[in-house]
Write a structure and sequence with these properties.
- The complex is a heterohexamer, with three copies of chain A (93 residues) and three copies of chain D (81 residues).
- With 93 residues, chain A is an all-alpha fold.
- Chain A contains two helices and no strands.
- Chain D has 81 residues and is mainly alpha-helical.
- Chain D has a domain at 53-81.
- Chain D has two helices and no strands.
- Classes of the chains: A mainly alpha (93), D mainly alpha (81).
- The B-D interface holds B 1-2, 5-6, 8, 11-13, 16, 19-20, 23-24, 27, 31, 34-35, 38, 42, 46-47, 63, 65-67, 69-71, 73-75, 77-79, 81-82, 85-86, 90 and D 2, 4-5, 10, 13-14, 17-18, 20-22, 24-25, 28-29, 31-33, 35-36, 39-40, 42, 44-49, 53-54, 57-58, 61-62, 65, 81.
- Chains A, B, C: GO terms for molecular function: metal ion binding.
- Chains A, B, C: Pfam families: zf-Tim10_DDP.
- Chains A, B, C: Residues 23-84 form the Tim10-like domain.
Amino acid sequence: MDKSMMGDLNSLNQADQQRMAAMIDQLQIRDSLRMYNNLVERCFTDCVDNFKRKTLDKQEETCVTRCAEKFMKLSMRVGLRFAELNQGAATQD
Amino acid sequence: MDKSMMGDLNSLNQADQQRMAAMIDQLQIRDSLRMYNNLVERCFTDCVDNFKRKTLDKQEETCVTRCAEKFMKLSMRVGLRFAELNQGAATQD
Amino acid sequence: MDKSMMGDLNSLNQADQQRMAAMIDQLQIRDSLRMYNNLVERCFTDCVDNFKRKTLDKQEETCVTRCAEKFMKLSMRVGLRFAELNQGAATQD
Amino acid sequence: MAAAPTEMDREQIFSMAEKEMEYRVEMFNKLTHTCFQKCVESKYKDSELNMGENSCIDRCVAKYWQVTNLVGVLLGNNRPM
Amino acid sequence: MAAAPTEMDREQIFSMAEKEMEYRVEMFNKLTHTCFQKCVESKYKDSELNMGENSCIDRCVAKYWQVTNLVGVLLGNNRPM
Amino acid sequence: MAAAPTEMDREQIFSMAEKEMEYRVEMFNKLTHTCFQKCVESKYKDSELNMGENSCIDRCVAKYWQVTNLVGVLLGNNRPM
């Protein structure tokens, strides 16, 4: 989530700015917990298909680890591109 | 969202009715933003599959436009049928 | 939802404990309505594929009933296992 | 004539009304997306709904409603919808 | 004995507790739906869970829990779950 | 210099800002998951994004943005995004 999206923050007084910042913090906490849940669901769905044992085998563990690491790298990259587009800084093909 | 669903609004005094109306407005704003997000996700998923260029080609643009227009027409029709059912006005086959 | 997850409830005074309990109740109501919506969507998607008539036929009705009953049984079982894991009571394979 | 609701009742009325509305909005959204999936072919050859799609939508809404009621009864939810 | 929490602490406790519970409810819902998908065959031949489905569910929950912990470690989240 | 906002204005500013941020967070999440689906092959042979995946992601984000704007215009939403 990008704090720079709140361009009109400056028209508020100090107490209101604090309140707005607190609201943004709250949304970020909720968002990161949701992201966590979504990531677990996706990597589990893609990597775990065998229910003959109740513990992850080595292959499933490797798959989940790679899935999560790929997702986090992708998420960072998407964040950068998204911020560029938000600033109208997109260049041509 | 259908304001008529709130039949018990009348048992409230005027201040409460205003508060309830404000709440409904808030939910409608949130709902229309969500609908927007869902519509974009669906039409993107159905129409865009080629990532050799960074701009939509004509065919993708046409597909997205039709997808969104069909969705909006469907959404209106569903809203009408839904309201009829809410009023117990459903007729037989 | 498991009320026992709120271990730090005890550090709060009585008014706060009541407020926390009310919050938990609110989340449970919202959660059960969401579960209802999700269950309807899943069983409808899995069981209803024929739109030549506007009423459910016997086969669809049976399918929906079984789907919902299976889901409720599964949900209870998952809740038990989940609570065991939350208490670190998971046994070996 | 009913007595005026107390402060506590009033808060409960608002809170329940809010959840009820959220529930209905969510149901409407799920219904819309499910019937889009079931009735509209995803080639999007034009931007109109044809007659087949329109009658499919009407029946889809009617059946979704019946499934909602059926599941509601199974969950022990006795009021309509 | 711990000092009484200040007004600010108290609001933060409520706010964090609410998010924590929302998170757990969401996890429980995702877990339930994912294990339904993985373990219950969608023909719905009867309304009981058979033995195979039941043991699949138990293992599915256990594995989901392990994936949650594994991903939590990768995200730098050190507390259990 | 602009006049100080009234109490009502202020509440509306907060309320709209909150919805706007929720909307953007949701858009970002959908975008991330959609581009993961479209660009990352689900075998997960290693934990790095390769060059092909990276350029797919960049183009996916750019196209998602364009679809957002296009749909926004169709919905009668005139402001950018």
